[in-house]
Amino acid sequence: MKIKDIVNREIVTLTNCENEPIHIPGKIQPHGFLIGITLGRKIDYCTGNIAEFVEVTYTEALGKSFAAVFGSSAEQKIFDYIDEDKIKDAFPLEIDLLGKSFQISIHKSLDMYVLEAEPLFSREKLADVYTQTIEFVTQMNNTKSLKDLCALVAEATREITGYDRVMIYRFDEQYNGEVFAESCREDLEPFLGLHYPHTDIPPQARELYIKNLLRLIVDVGYEPVPIFTVDDSENKNLDLSFSVLRSTSPIHVEYLQNMGVGATLTISLIHHGRLWGLIACHHYSEKNISPDIRLAAKLQGYFITSQIDIRQSNDEYLNVQKTAVAFEQLTGLDLPLVSDSFDIIISAPQLLNICNAAGVSIITKDKIYKSGLTPSDEQIEAVVESINDLKINTIFSTNKIRDHFPEIDSANIAGIIYHPVGNGNHIIWYRPETILEINWGGDPEKSIIKDSTGLHPRNSFEIWKQIVKNQSSVWKEYEINAAAQYAHSLHNHFMMIMLTEEEEKYRTQSEILRETNSELENINWISTHDLQEPLRKIQLITSKMMSEINVVSIDSINSSLQRVSNSASRMRVLLEDILKYTRIKNTKGVLEKTDLNHILRVTIEEMSEVITESNAVIESENLPEVHAISFLIKQLFSNIIQNSLKYASPDRTPVIKITASQEPEIIKDKFKVYCYWIRFSDNGIGFDQKYSESIFKVFTRLHNQQEYTGSGVGLALCKKIMQTLGGAIYAEGKVGEGSEITIYFPCDPEDSLL
């Protein structure tokens, strides 16, 4: 019978280092021995050190049945253990082999049973391990955060196992590692917070950590023991992925030696099927631990992985709660359904708290609203344009904006959450650049060194500092979800504003149409009545004069001609007023800053003759500056003053008082908001308040033509002027006491009241 070893002697190079077949090294650590048994119970693999544990050599064992070497009783116990499906049991099988006591771990590798025997450990410390585990569980319930739990696990694992250093090692997305928690001897330099590159644990090693949760190296300086087999086929090998005694990669051994480590215990932390981290235990001399302690240490890993989701949820709970409160407060704002409501939204601090941002901007079709730390308008427009070019029509987030849009110079902004809100509108939250200083356990760029003898791990673990720029803190999932949720709410607000504006537009158009129809009726009336009446008079007078031309006196002719002139004059006034009214209806001037004090002085000067004839007194206080059209304001003032003079009381001297708001103030009226008011008060004959609206209708008169002359267009012109300027006009009156005309002007663009 020919025997051979299965030692893998392939040299590791830069080309194959990430594919080093560490699962089939063909050798084990020397603190135990290994036997491979076929399904037919024949010994097909055996390590070269078996004679150090029992009185049989590997050459004597290979090719024979297990019973022939170790006896039928031992064989029966072995296969009873296997048949009872205890291969994956927590405790190894305790058994006597050729007069020696062993603990045997058994696993199946393809069509082979792999038996790994170690001398039996004393179980005298089992009660202590149990007590320590119970104490740990009690303390675990008092921790809230994941970091606190990991710190407790590190301390408890070190107490249970007796290792010099215990680290909780956490991986990031690229499998770079960080020492997340640590417990170590006081005389040792702490590694807490240090980072290690992903090359320290290559992919094939991570794969084995997922398959086999516990890995033990009793003596880093061990001499590997080869595995021998019967040479009866080519490429014969044994997969040791689940082995307890499997020999370690030479590069890893050298790595540990460079760190000065004498023994290690590694426990895998698996979360959602992914290698989340490791419990890495280091000892600075040789060290082995019993199966009981191994199990207790393994339980520490289960404690962590079972609590990751819960503790991470606890860690985020307060922030999530803060976000939820901010969302509730923000959506609970009583917002007017107008575009100006975005000034209220953008100034609300809750808008930043929604996703813990440093700045935010709302981009509409004609304006950008900003709060907090934001780029310039040009940069915001560039971001939106770039996102549109990529046809992104849903939420987009990044903490490294330059990775996606390198052409954008976003100043100190590194992270964004973008969301479209419909109809060309957008909202973007921002985070600033966060410059990180990462402490690595050695230069990550020199984790593998090549020399004339091959590849070697780095031999320097001095702290190597890396400065990371051009990125913000990572957006958490709950922050992204909250941003999306509010973006949908904002979209609804946009839609409500649009619907309200459409409704207001249709309402205004309906009102204009109604007023226009009413005006047409009045114009029709004036053209059929007020204009016909003086025409009839002219016709009657001239007909009578022609029929009595020979007998009528000169005085009678003069009187008749005077009456004709008066009728013609009245017709001219009516036609001029109709022309004025039409002119106001079609005036579309550009509003400009207008000094009302100047307009009032000019108006009073031009009306000085009629004011003097009426013996009237005009009192006025300082008037504000408003955005208006100067010639319309002059006509407005003139018509109001003329109206007060026309309807002055014969029993007292006419007094007109003009008062005004001295500072802009919010004045809400139906769907509109005004900032300035001016009031003309007189002591004339007044009017019944029930006519307060009808007096502004074209050609409406409250008194007959014989008592008070006029066409009834004056106040209608005033209303049309204020409508043209975006303002309003109202009248109040008391019969026999006087009247008040109040006009309202809209807010200036510079006003900050809204």
TrEMBL record:
Its EC number is 2.7.13.3. It comes from the Bacteria. It catalyses: ATP + protein L-histidine = ADP + protein N-phospho-L-histidine. Residues 145-302 form the Phytochrome chromophore attachment site domain. GO terms for molecular function: phosphorelay sensor kinase activity; photoreceptor activity. Pfam families: GAF, HATPase_c, PAS_2, PHY. Residues 526-749 form the Histidine kinase domain. The keyword Phosphoprotein applies. GO terms for biological process: detection of visible light; regulation of DNA-templated transcription. Keywords: Chromophore, Kinase, Phosphoprotein, Photoreceptor protein, Receptor, Sensory transduction, Transferase. The keyword Phosphoprotein applies. In the N-terminal section; belongs to the phytochrome family. This is histidine kinase.
